[in-house]
Design brief:
With 293 residues, the protein is an alpha/beta fold. The chain has 8 helices and 10 strands.
Length: 293
Amino acid sequence: MALMQERPQDGTPPAQTAPAAPCLELDGLAKSFGRGRRQVRVLENVSLTVGQGEFVSLIGPSGSGKSTILHLIGGLLPPDAGAIRMEGREVTGRKGLISYMPQSAALFPWRTIEDNAVLAREVAGLPRAESLALAREWLAKVGLAGYERAYPHMLSGGMQQRAAFVRALLSPQEFLCLDEPFGALDALTRQDMQQWLLALWEANRRSVLFITHSIEEALLLSDRVYLLSGKPTRVLRELRVPFGRPRAEDVADDPRFLELKREIYEEMKREQARQETAAREAAPPAGRFGFRR
């Protein structure tokens, strides 16, 4: 039962607490590349939010601009239109406000694992001794104790990804952008990494924007999922994942999980068919010998 608010003595209504601003808000983002006839519209009126301590995933076709969205959020590219806000403040075009993990581990081969892990803190000018202590603590938490002074080539792909995640986690920036971090891993390692990330996030609860091509991965990890169209990319649908936290390991066997997975797959197939039809209609007519004019 909700607690009743006490009315002030002068009879005025009690002050209402304003809801917390989203950790991230994208408002009507648009982006094109090229000029004139060669211009390609990549994003069209993309709006979405990531709440405080929320795990949100983006799913969309290959080449639909998912990574471009992260580049806009990170300030690496300017949007043609729209705004980016973090905790209510407009930050469009500003760099250094997010922690980013790319598709590959991207560890520097000449640096040890612990030196790679502290890189973002080193760039930020934070004390090295404190950073190394944190790195060693977190490397142990992710199963890399004993590898602190190893070099990247000495680790498996999954181990390198864990080291890269520690680097992102130790960044002074709270907001995490993960760009298909498990895409290059084999199926078994990917499944292990998903469970590892899920457990780590449950304990840490950072705000995360996660890009993936895997419907199952998005449903397993996320609180909400945005389904994106092909170019020009727009939000087709926002889906709230109906499974509680902590998320059970066998949730993928739940009939509701399987139904949602099928539903998203069918919607993506319809979008792919729409894109293929649009591409055929936009193509110039064939010439006498079958060549496009």
